[in-house]
Amino acid sequence: MAGLKLMVDLRERHHRPAPETSSDADRREFEQISTDLLKRIRDAFRAELGPEARAEMDAAEAGVQGDRASALAGHVFLARRLPDYWQRFEAHQTTYARQQLEAPPGPRRGWLGRLFSE
Predict the structure, then answer these.
(1) pLDDT value at position 87?
(2) SS3 category, 90
(3) Which CA distances in Å does 89 have to 71, 85, 116, 117?
(4) Domain presence at residue 50
(5) Torsion over CA: 28, 91, 76, 44 (sign)
(6) Is residue 24 within 8 Å of 30, Cβ to Cβ?
(7) Beta carbons of 25 and 11 less than 8 angstroms apart
(8) What is the pLDDT of residue 3?
(9) Residue 80 has what pLDDT?
(10) What is the domain count for the chain?
(11) Closest alpha carbon to 74 in 100, 96, 48
């Protein structure tokens, strides 16, 4: 849900239309945003762990293939290990979303973007 909310908020911020469930491009964008979100939050948690816990987290993530699956495995490890995981998750998610919303928009895409690019 955090990834979807961020996607909608980013589109509003950059004056883009709302995502459509029937759009393959929108689904790919959602998957990219949610994967980036999971990875960034995982990295924030990882930076707070001691060396032993980081090694255990690395082992938990090593059992799966792919960025998204690895990030999810890391979050499962963290949720099982940290009693305040969800509170910290929300804090990290809010920080990441704020950073993304404050960042300038990327380059315009498509021929209209190239035509009107600055």
Answers:
(1) 96
(2) helix
(3) 13, 6, 39, 37
(4) yes
(5) positive
(6) no
(7) no
(8) 87
(9) 95
(10) 1
(11) 48
In the predicted model, residues of the chain with pLDDT beneath 70 are 106-118
Return the pLDDT at 103. Answer: 85
DSSP secondary structure code for residue 107 in this structure:
-
Write down the pTM of the prediction. 0.75
Does residue 72 belong to any structural domain of this protein? yes
DSSP code for 84: T
Residue 82 and residue 88 in contact, taking contact as beta carbons nearer than 8 Å: yes
User: What b/e sequence results for 29-44 when a residue is b if at least 16 CB atoms lie within 10 Å of its CB, and e otherwise?
Assistant: bbeebbbbbbbbbbeb
103, 112 in Cβ contact below 8 A? Answer: no
Number of helices (H), then strands (E), in the chain: 6, 0
φ and ψ at residue 4, rounded to 5 degrees: -65, -45
Report which of 12, 18, 1, 23 is spatially closest to residue 100, judged by C-alpha positions: 12
The answer to the question of residue 116 being in a domain is: no
Q: Determine the structural domain holding residue 57 and report its residue range.
A: 2-10+24-102
- Per-residue model confidence (pLDDT) at position 107: 59
